[in-house]
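Appendix B, Record 12. Input sequence as logged:
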Amino acid sequence: MTTSIEQNEELQAALEHLYSEVASKDLQPLWTQVRELMTRYPKPAAIPWLWQWKTLLALAERAGELVSVERGGERRVLALSNPGLNGLPFATSTLWAGIQYLNPGEVAPAHRHSPGAIRFVLQGEGMWTTVNGDACDMQRGDLVLTPGGTWHDHTNPGSEPVIWFDGLDLPTIQALDAVFFETFPDLNQQPNPLHNLSELTFGGRGTLPVEVATSTTHSPLLVYRWEDTDTALSALLKVQGTPIASLKFVNPATGQSVMPTFGCEIHRIIKGGHTRPGRKVGSSVFVIFQGSGYSVINEQKFDWSAGDMFVTPSWATYEHVAFEQSDLFTITDRPLLETLGLFRQEEEQEPQPIKSQFQAK
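Logged structural output:
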């Protein structure tokens, strides 16, 4: 007569044999890992993190002295590497971010790639980015697009270095196995003598050319001026009467995101403003364009000032407090999640009192 112990031992041996055979056939049993794969809520590998401007600037300036910009390396860029991503040069699992430094008289070679990119100018002026022959002049606070597949290079004919924030959807495109890269036949493009063609064509407020096709997946307007952004933020604050005004940069022809896979936003918080705590599916990279304050992300406090950059991972709870009027530029994967029907958010009705250990001294 077979005992229950013997039956259990036979079952265990049979299961071990099954698992061994399953593994040998490049298969895995779902029933042993369903709780790890189907989590109750997002559990991103990226963690909340902040990079200080003084560190970024010092290292970028040293790189400007030691590293040349030429074909091969292509760009003098420092990428934000989130400590939760095991050494990958990504800010989050979907967003790449970094700062680019171009010395006076330098020209970064022309190339194109399937990942889309944006440039947000932090310091300097007098340079331009040429996108498919359109030389887009760049000044502090301007946003310039280099959509996926467009030829682009950077030219600084001025007398001072120019530094800007770069944002790309590289991790997303890499995860989709869709990365392509190609160098331009010559070192650089020969831009149209008339600069800012896209702005001249699509930059009218509330207007579009009647006879111009606008059915691209990205915005046909390639440059968004800080002067316009600043005016819109001030007006929205006045209209809303709230501590924060938030704008998204859109395709003027469709009202959709400037890029199909990620978006650009800007948030202005009034002096003493405290935003409502909330969380959302999807990650963001914040760039402090001007101002100072702090953010609490998953109960971690991060003090910030102009030039600092920080990450909010997917479904992280966060809120912001501004010591002075502050402008926060942001890239986010929200447009892609909305397209896929995966975006959701939660927001508390009123900001909660910050814990005493978070209070500014």
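The CA atoms of residues 1 and 33 lie 36 Å apart.
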